[in-house]
Design a protein that fits this description.
With about 120 residues, the protein is an all-alpha fold. The radius of gyration is 16 Å and the shape is globular. Helix 2 packs across helix 3 and helix 3 packs across helix 5. The protein has one domain. The longest helix is centred in the last third of the chain and has 18 residues. The protein contains seven helices and no strands.
């Protein structure tokens, strides 16, 4: 692994359920885009596709995307076909590595605070 805390490396051990000749997008790309989209608040397949298209220049810094961003149908079909135990085990291993990297400190990911929409006067969002 080039970066021991990269989610791409952790997810590379997940079995790809697709037939090789039908793969336009790597499994790692689908999972990385999905993860980033969900962290940013995506709550559906269409929003994952929209996120990928909006962030394609940034995503290309980490991923090889010769066929662009997967469609919402591809996100749905591929993620739904994954072995849930493998996915869970990879995700847990990655989050544990992040906990070690941050020495167990909590890293809050709150879109409201990031957008500046929290109510400073009351302390509520």
């Amino acid at each position: 692994m080039t970066n021991p805390n990269s989610p791409i490396d952790f997810f590379s051990s997940i079995s790809d359920p697709r037939v090789e000749r039908t793969q336009k997008h790597s499994l790692e790309s689908i999972l990385f885009i999905s993860l980033c989209a969900v962290i940013c608040g995506a709550e559906g397949w269409n929003v994952m596709e929209d996120y990928g298209n909006a962030k394609i220049d940034w995503l290309k810094k980490f991923l090889h995307l010769p066929n662009g961003i997967p469609s919402h149908d591809t996100f749905n079909r591929v993620i739904s076909a994954l072995d849930s135990k493998e996915m869970n085990d990879s995700f847990v291993a990655w989050t544990k590595s992040i906990a070690e990297l941050t020495d167990g400190e909590v890293v809050a990911i709150d879109g409201k605070c990031m957008r500046g929409s929290s109510d400073e006067g009351t302390g509520t969002s």
